[in-house]
């Protein structure tokens, strides 16, 4: 665990979060500032900085993360109308928290894939 990492502290229970799904290797909780009617963050319980680091270092944990994102979409009732899974990565990707997380968003049409496009 990285004591300076916000999401490691959520995993440790030091910072409260609304947890919606949990497996041995993943945790999913509602985003504090939702950008869509449903906005859940899915993370590996182990610390990896971003999706590229995760995929390189632990492909099995990466697979678990995707499976958990799909399970969250199903549990949140998003699979019928569709949803989006987003990994913001690095500076240009707009990543703010450097513990890899999948944003699972849906519940309304989400508009263009990128701002203005
Ligand atoms: P990023 O920009 O790194 O892809 O996304 C970070 C996300 O974490 C943002 O959507 C932000 O709203 C969310 N977030 C930041 N701090 C907290 C927090 O303390 N609790 C929860 N549940 N979400 C947070
Ligand atoms: Zn962390």
Order of helices and strands: HEEEHHEHE
- What distance separates the N and C termini? 38 Å
Helicity level, as a percent range?
Answer: 25-40%
The percent range for strand residues is: 15-25%
Low-confidence stretches: none
* Ligand catalogue: guanosine-5'-monophosphate, zinc ion
Count of helices?
4
Number of DSSP strand runs? 5
Mean pLDDT score: 97
What would you call the shape? globular
The biggest sheet amounts to:
5 strands, antiparallel
Descriptive account of the structure:
- This protein is an alpha+beta fold.
- The chain has a 5-stranded antiparallel sheet, with helices on one face.
- The longest helix is centred in the middle third of the chain and has 17 residues.
- It starts with 5 loop residues before the first helix and ends in an 11-residue tail after the last strand.
- The relative contact order is 0.21.
- The model has no long low-confidence stretch (mean pLDDT 97).
Topology:
Blueprint lengths: L5 H6 L7 E4 L3 E5 L7 E7 L6 H7 L1 H17 L7 E4 L3 H4 L8 E5 L11
Antiparallel strand pairs: 1-2, 2-3, 3-5, 4-5
Helix pairs in contact: 2-3
Keywords for this entry:
21% strand; five-stranded antiparallel beta sheet; single chain; binds guanosine-5'-monophosphate; binds zinc ion
Q: Could you give a short description of this structure?
A:
This protein is an alpha+beta fold. It is built from 4 helices and 5 strands.
